[in-house]
Amino acid sequence: MTRRIAPLLAGLLALAGGAQAQSVADRLNDYPTVARADYVFACMATNGQTRRVLEQCACSIDEIANILPYEAYVAAETVLEMRQVGGERTSIFRSAASATEQVADLRRAQAEAEIVCF
To answer: With b meaning 16 or more CB within 10 Å and e meaning fewer, what string describes 22-48?
Structure first.
């Protein structure tokens, strides 16, 4: 009976390891292509329209993606966009500690990416 359980157990462990590896790969590549492209276009608009800048901007979003999960990136970008809108309704985005922390996390990731890529 133990001879039958050993191969089954080995198969289950291999399957679990594969599922874990898949989730790590998914986590590292959770930024949609459109989000990466938007970042690169904005980066190139700021830094220049050369091949070298294209590579640096692509490197930059890759580094940010390695540091910050996509959900956190979207949250920080939303806060930054809402801070540009005037009015009382958007004051929460300027004053809330959680919003400030989200933006700070994005800024740290961008600074790290700039060190690595530029």
So the answer is: eeeeeeeeebeeebbeebbeebbeeee
Q: Measuring CA to CA, which residue among 65, 40, 64 is closest to residue 53? A: 40
Residues 3-39 have pLDDT tens digits of: 554 444 444 445 455 544 546 556 557 899 999 999 9
Alpha-carbon span 36 to 95, nearest angstrom: 29
| Structure-token match 């930024």, residue found | 31
Can you tell me the distance from the alpha carbon of 52 to that of 112, in angstroms, rounded to the nearest whole number?
Answer: 19
Which residue from 60, 18, 69, 11 is spatially nearest to 39, judged by alpha carbons? 60
Indicate the domain borders of the chain: 31-117
pLDDT digit string, tens, across residues 36-87: 999 999 999 999 999 999 999 999 999 999 999 999 999 999 999 888 887 7
